[in-house]
Amino acid sequence: IGLPLLSALAAGACFFLTAFTLKKKRTPCLCLAFFLLGSARLSAAQPRGGPSFVGSYLERSAVFEVILEEDPVKRGGGWRARAHVVGFHPGQGDPVGELEGAVLVEFRAPPEDWEARYGDRAELAGFLGPPPEVEGFDYADYLARQGVYGILKDLSLIHI
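^ thats the sequence. predicted structure below, dont judge the formating
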């Protein structure tokens, strides 16, 4: 937790408590308190970036250890599911542990030996790319609001 987040939380809590000791100006104090607490919540929900953020590894092929956060949804001949990255092996250098943010796992054709379900853990080799651009719609922003920052595609299943 950074200093701005703690400051907003502390100030919001102070205004909230002060509002109950005042007879006049209670409404402005409550409004300010809720604004500060909402700002703190928004700040806490933003990805922090850096080496523990999944978006830092876009445009890379690597081995990913994932846990499916939902049952796969069929799309055409393949399927897609939201997943949490619990391990990242870039090929060069040391493996990276759990990453902040989710990805969409996208298979064009489902692996024959994997009946994927919510909670499954798998090791996948593939390419982590950004969400595709869609004319008239900010698909990347739409996914980011759901905590998804990349799409794993061109996958091969290594281990379930």
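Helices lie at 3-19, 26-45, 139-145.
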